[in-house]
Amino acid sequence: MTGTVFDAPTVIRCKRDGGRLSDAAIDWVIEAYTDGRVAPEQMSALLMAIFLRGMDRKEIARWTAAMLASGPRLDFTDLGLATVDKHSTGGVGDKITLPLVPVVTACGAAVPQAAGRGLGHTGGTLDKLESIAGFSAELSNHRVREQLRDIGAAIFAAGELAPADAKLYALRDVTGTVESLPLVASSVMSKKLAEGAAALVLDVKVGSGAFMNSEAESRDLAHTMVELGIAHGVPTRALLTDMEAPLGATVGNSLEVEESLEVLAGGGPPDVVELTVRLATEMLDLAGIDGRDPAETLRDGSAMDRFRRLVAAQGGDLAKPLPIGRHSETVTAARGGTMGDIDAMAVGLAAWRLGAGRSRPGARVQHGAGVRIHRRRGEPVVAGEALFTLYTDTPDRLPPAMAELDGAFSVVADPPPRRPLIIDRITR
Ligand code: URA
């Protein structure tokens, strides 16, 4: 497209028909949508066109830059801290941020983390943390600075940072336009570049519970985002990690907080611990911090201490019990053997149907809704014992959630082969 005067139908038709959007068209549509001149139904149509037609690298770079320019870019260099953050492309049971941020701060880095809410079948860090009584993610930029200085971390709603992403993210969540490489890459990188961390580690998911359909697409996403970060002056690297099965043994907001507290207390599922420690190692390396072993901070309580301080600073009260759905149903084993594959997507959808995610923009999530996994891949199963427990406050939600789990797992005779959690490391 050429020219300087734009209108939404023309931009939509250009992408719908497989054209490429000019820099000027991208700048216009992002700005006009952010300030309300492009209507949500018009942006929904454009997002669907992008979902179906894709974008080339140059369009993605410009779309990301326009989203970044829709708000301020924070800068903490004057604080003299080694700032670093991580972002995940979204998974099922992915509560890693909760133990990771305190681990990294206990090792001497500072983490300004702009986090998101649930997206599609995946959970969001903010929804999880808000299941702690009193916790608030609405922090002013001033408050973020104070927390970084005082306790080394802040986890906050992006708010005025990349406001284009805040609007697009909520719209994508309810219009079937989440699973798109250009839209995921620009969403992640616009807010991560805006939040002011000096370095960035990305956890790019691969498998049934990931937004990308294949490992090749996840690799492409990882390379695209690493290049975007570097182009904007932020050293960035990515790990490709397994998301065929849910991470850990819980999926759902308060259930995942409970499991994160176990990890911070030195226990918890081995995969959650492994990924936390590995991502922390990458973050500390990129931040130029050499010294403490991240695993040690889980054993000696220093990460737990940081987490408690972070939660308290943001109004949360860990002494109050975490909510749990009032109604539950259990799936039991029809036969004995070994737990085989557990489909992450199906478990994510079950948690979403139980009320852990949204189907309308701005809807309230149920903090106590979710799925507890009693037997994980490779664990022995005895006939008749509990395999999954589903929780919700709304009993009508149980049958459709149970239906999602139908055929989503298998109990097999022989232990399935081990699958690596960390698939690859992408530096450029
Ligand atoms: N995380 C984000 O911030 N955006 C996405 O689109 C996916 C994961």
Automatic annotation (TrEMBL):
GO terms for biological process: pyrimidine nucleobase metabolic process; pyrimidine nucleoside metabolic process. GO terms for cellular component: cytosol. Transmembrane segments: none annotated. Keywords: Glycosyltransferase, Transferase. InterPro entries: Glycosyl_Trfase_fam3 (IPR000312), Glycosyl_Trfase_fam3_N_dom (IPR017459), Glycosyl_Trfase_fam3_N_dom_sf (IPR036320), Nuc_phospho_transferase (IPR035902), PYNP-like_C_sf (IPR036566), PYNP_C (IPR013102), Pyrmidine_PPas_bac/euk (IPR018090), Pyrmidine_PPase_CS (IPR017872). It comes from the Bacteria. GO terms for molecular function: 1,4-alpha-oligoglucan phosphorylase activity; thymidine phosphorylase activity. Gene3D superfamilies: Nucleoside phosphorylase/phosphoribosyltransferase catalytic domain (3.40.1030.10), Pyrimidine nucleoside phosphorylase-like, C-terminal domain (3.90.1170.30), Transferase, Pyrimidine Nucleoside Phosphorylase, Chain C (1.20.970.10). Residues 338-412 form the Pyrimidine nucleoside phosphorylase C-terminal domain. It holds the Pfam family Glycos_trans_3N. Homodimer. Belongs to the thymidine/pyrimidine-nucleoside phosphorylase family. This is Thymidine phosphorylase.
